[in-house]
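General statements about sequence and structure are easier to judge against a single worked case. For one protein, we set the task of working out the structure tokens from the amino acid sequence alone. The sequence in question and its structure tokens are set out directly beneath this paragraph.
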Amino acid sequence: MSGVGDSGFTENQLAAFAYFTPVPAIALLIFEPYSRHEFLRFHSYQCLLLAATALIIAVLSPVFAFLLPFDLLLGALTQLAILVMWVLAALGAWRGERTLLPIIGPIAAKKARMA
């Protein structure tokens, strides 16, 4: 892929960088010329949706632990699954692929096309 703007980074590298924390994802959505690239918008939105999902599960998991005795194990396995999805999405971005994650991937793709 070609470089984006004056950053010296390729589109793939910037898309993978979006998955480090939500901060680069937000920056890529706000600042020009990055916000004009649909590939970067897709990975930024997917990162933000994945982070929101992880946060919701992290908050709700201890609440449900009082109701279900095995929920702590279920919460740990869910967080592990989110970590695996995060790594797979970042690696896919590095390779120039649009790795659609379950449920949030199509939402991110739709948001990236709309912007």
Summary: The radius of gyration is 16 Å.
